[in-house]
Amino acid sequence: MGRKFIKKKKVEQLEIVPLDENPPLPSQRPSDEVVPKKEKWINKQRVLVFAARGISHRDRHLMRDIKTLMPHHRPESKMERSKTLAVVNEMCEMKHCNKAMLFEGRRKRDLYMWLANTAGATGPSAKFLIENIHTMAELKLTGNCLRGSRPLLSFDAKFDEVPHLKLLKELFVQTFSVPNHHPKSQPFIDHVYTFTYLDNRIWFRNFQILSEDGGLSEVGPRYVMNPVKIFDGSFTGKAIWENPDYVSPSKQRQMLKKAAKDRYVNRVEQKVQQEATRPVKAYEGIENEELFDDEDPLETAKLLALKAKKQLEQKKTPKSALTKKIKDKQMEAVKQVIEQRKARVKREKKV
């Protein structure tokens, strides 16, 4: 049998078009075309929310409430006290976070909160003392909001006037605001955060929006931020602002103890002065003291009658004594008139 020869098909080769022959893109789009909407998650803010060892149960519950309100947060285990704050920048870099919120406890009493921009460790970072903490479970308020919904941020008018408050406002906006189209967020706006500046402190409240005409109902949590310092770096750098009215909680407790001690010292001094000025002799008895010695009411009545008679007799003066006193006064007046006349006569003779 002879071999069959199969003819191979020739492969058509693509022609290489030179670059100069590519048609140029239109410089302007026609006005009839609709602009495509970008439905992507563009603002990729991630906040690392964690605490250092040594916070109390109430502080831990506050941190849990803040985590529920921020779907764009990243959790982290407790930080050891032996580590420095500069390690937080490395932790944020490993977690792909560009913001950090650190809760730091002191003596199981005081709570400090750090807010920092850790993107490239450029800062700034702010330190706050948290006061008057009330968690959601503790308040039991009537307000409620959808988990993961986006909030509105309302700021006091002073946040646009005072320089350091302008910086804190921008830090709050980038930290607390939920990015649009975040995977864990809901496309609803049903609550509002209010930041009010009063008494050199920032008051945080969370309200549910009931209606479009401004009806609100508080949800919680609520706390007060007392700003301590603002640093130019992320947990590092020099302090660019410091609160002149800030007094540490330990100093306040020390002052209260000192005031209580002063009250005790004053009380002891009063006792010593009372002992020193106490009279040696007893006070003189009251009038008619002997009447209370006798238990018989008839005897006491007789004694009172006798004393009353004696007092009347002492007060009465006889007529002879009165006439004598009147005559003595008249004689003194006559003598004074005679002496005055004699003196006048002597003056006339000399003249």
Automatic annotation (TrEMBL):
This is Ribosome biogenesis protein BRX1 homolog. One of its GO terms (cellular component) is nucleolus. It comes from the Eukaryota. Its main location: nucleus. Keywords: Nucleus, Ribosome biogenesis. It is found in: Nucleus, Nucleolus. GO terms for molecular function: rRNA binding. GO terms for biological process: ribosomal large subunit assembly; rRNA processing. Signal peptide: none annotated. Residues 45-236 form the Brix domain. Pfam families: Brix. Belongs to the BRX1 family. It comes from Drosophila navojoa (Fruit fly). Required for biogenesis of the 60S ribosomal subunit. InterPro entries: Brix (IPR007109), BRX1 (IPR026532). The keyword tRNA processing does not apply.
